[in-house]
Each structure stands twice: as structure tokens, then as C-alpha cells.
Amino acid sequence: MEFRTNHEIIRRARRNARGPVWDYLAGGSESETAMRRNRFGLDSIALKPRVLRDVSTVDYATTVMGHKSRIPVFLAPMASLQLVTPAAAQAVDDAAEEFGILNMLSGHSRPSLEEIAMNSLHPKVYQIYVRGGRDWLEELLGRVKQNNYDALAVTVDAAVYSNRERQMMAGWTPPTRTNSGGREFLAALNWDTWDEIRQIWGGPMILKGVSRPEDAEIGVQHGASVIYVSNHGGRQLDHDRATIQVLPDIVAAVDGRAEVFVDGGFMRGTDVIKAIALGAQAVGIGKLQAFALCAGGLSGLMDCLTILEDEIRIAMGLLGVSSLDQLDPSYLAKARPVDPPHEMSAFPHIPGAPLT
User: Fold this and answer.
1) Which site in 189, 195, 266, 342 is 20 to 30 Å from 306, CA atoms measured?
2) What is the CATH number of the domain that holds 137?
3) Which domain holds residue 34?
């Protein structure tokens, strides 16, 4: 089936997902306030178009970490994708290769990092949760280097595993939780550990999970190539702020010394436009990626990316901009959301949303 809208993808994903698997994909931590704030933040920004601008050609391609990207979007690292499609992370890698964007392989994904490396030639990032000491790091990063990953993303906002109450009430535990030895190393993670990883790795590093400009500044000082603004999709610290809300302060703190990525509730081309206008180089999609895989595997994800690309093209044309570098905060304004924020507020045509 060829999907024409991401509404259709969400509907199909909900039909395909069973019970706690949907809760795992769609939910957040505790009251899910942080997850809803991600959408509230995006929905609280209006667009301010200009007219009589030549938009007969719209260029939305960009460069991400020195690599060409068809759209300013990357596939964020997602664990346990085997729950939604048998191909798991290989489907993500195939989509990134075919579509022409970057993907980040979660350290908790299947197949192995070696299998994904052999699967395609396009640039890709390996993401880790630190689960061991020096010997563990040297062994893992040696494998990552040997398999020619272009960069390493270190997730730093998961020192303690959160209460994900949808799953807890169902009595269900995701595979990443049941095989989660070594969490004490995540709890002990600090800048000395970061420096040790950087010394072992020796290549570009992404600091993933930043929500304050002070930490972004320290990250740049410690050699981060990318500051990745994220609150784990609202799945870690509840009552955190929306990532789009903190993005401008972090962009200002970085001041061009590193690239800035962002994720957190991004579902629409207009969402992507807002982040680029506020200074991000690229936007990660996580939940939307998982929904698309659940709806239709590789073909579902390819349809999703094509739809997102078309939304970006339309939004830019109607804004009166013909290239991404023309976007800036002058195209944005504060606004009151028209609907209550929830995980499905970007999809108002789904009956009964939110889909709990």
C-alpha cells in the first residue's frame, strides 16, 4: 500500500501494534507532561509568510556533519525496532540509503552494528549508552571504528531509567529494559568519561540529550561536533521543557562552534521548518519513524519520508522562501495552540485522538 498522508500511517500503525507495543511507541514517562510539552511547544509557534517571492524552485537539501542530506531530517536512534518490523534497524538503514539522509543506529538495536555497516555504504552514526568501563569502551568502540561509522553519539540523559507508566500498568517490559545490565555506568557518567570516550574514539562526537545552554557550552569546550537537543521524546525526565522551547538558547550558546540537532515530537514538515528557522541544522524523527515502520516496514518509512519532504517543500513555498538558509526567527511568531497537546495533536483527523 502507498500511503498518501501520515494520518494514514498513524492509523495503520495503531491497528498493527498490539497493546503494550503501542504504549511503548506512543507513550512517555509518568504523567507524560514532557512528551505533551514537546507538541505544545511546536503548536505554540505560528508561521509568518512573505509574498511575491520567487519560489518556482525550492531547495530543501542541506549538509549534515559534512554529508549531503536530501532534507534537513535524520532518523533518530530507536531501540527495540524488532517489535514493529522483522527487519528492525536494517529497514531504517535501507530507508536512509535509498532516501539520502543520515541514520543513527541505537546501541540497543538489531541487527548488529557489523551487519548494519555491511548493509549499505551511506554515512551513519552509532549511538551508545555507556554500560561498562575502559575495557568495555575499547572493545565496543574498536568494533565501531573497524566498521567505519562516521560519528559516535553518546546519550547522556538516561542516568536513571524512568517510570513509563503505560508499560508498567500493562505489566510489560521492553527488551531494552530486560537486558539492561551495567546501568551503574550510566549513573556515573561525567565529563571525565566523555573525555575518555573521545580519546578512545578519536572521531566526531555527538552529545545527545542536552536541554540547557550551560551544558551545551561545556560540550563544545570538550570537543563535541554536534550538540543534540533532546529530552528523550518525553520518555525520561517528566515535566521537562519542550525541546523547541530550549533550542534558541542552546543555538546561541553554541554560537556556530558545533552543529545543533534537535528532536522531540517532530511530526510535520512545518515542525521541521520551525526548528531550522530557530537555528538547528537537522531534525531527528523517532516516534514518527517507528509509527511508519509499524504501519508498513521499509515501504511505510519511505512513504513517510516522502510525505515529510512534500510538506517541507509546500511550507517553504508558501512561506516565500526558496532555500533553507533564508529561514530565520522573523518567519515565526508566538501563538496559542488550537487543540490540547497530546501525542497525536499533529494529526487532528484521526477520530478519538489521542490514541490510548
Assistant:
1) 342
2) 3.20.20.70
3) 6-334
Asked which of 92-96, 172-176, 229-233 is least confident by mean pLDDT, the reply is: 172-176
How many whole angstroms separate alpha carbon 249 and alpha carbon 84?
A: 36
Residue-level pLDDT at 354: 59
- pLDDT at res. 341: 80
> Residue type for 336, please?
R
**Does a structural domain hold residue 282?**
yes
Domain assignment present for 340? no
Copy the grid coordinates of residue 179. 537486558
As a whole number, mean pLDDT of residues 327-353 equals 88
Reduce the secondary structure of the chain to three states and give it as a string: CCCCCHHHHHHHHHHHCCCHHHHHHHCCCCCCHHHHHHHHHHHCEEECCCCCCCCCCCECCEEECCEEECCCEEECCCCCHHHCCCCCHHHHHHHHHHHCCCEEEECCCCCCHHHHHHHCCCCEEEEECCCCCHHHHHHHHHHHHHCCCCEEEEECCCCCCCCCHHHHHHCCCCHHHHCCCCHHHHHCCCHHHHHHHHHHHCCCEEEEEECCHHHHHHHHHCCCCEEEECCHHHCCCCCCCCHHHHHHHHHHHHCCCCEEEECCCCCCHHHHHHHHHCCCCEEEECHHHHHHHHHHHHHHHHHHHHHHHHHHHHHHHHHCCCEHHHCCHHHEEECCCCCCCCCCCCCCCCCCCCCC
349 has catalytic annotation: no
Q: Which of 232, 239, 342, 349 is catalytic?
A: 232
Residue 217 resides in a domain: yes
Query: 92 in a domain, yes or no?
Result: yes
Q: What is the pLDDT of residues 124-145, one digit of tens each?
A: 999 999 999 999 999 999 999 9
Rounded Cα distance between 77 and 128, Å, is 10
What's the mean pLDDT when you consider all of the chain?
Answer: 94
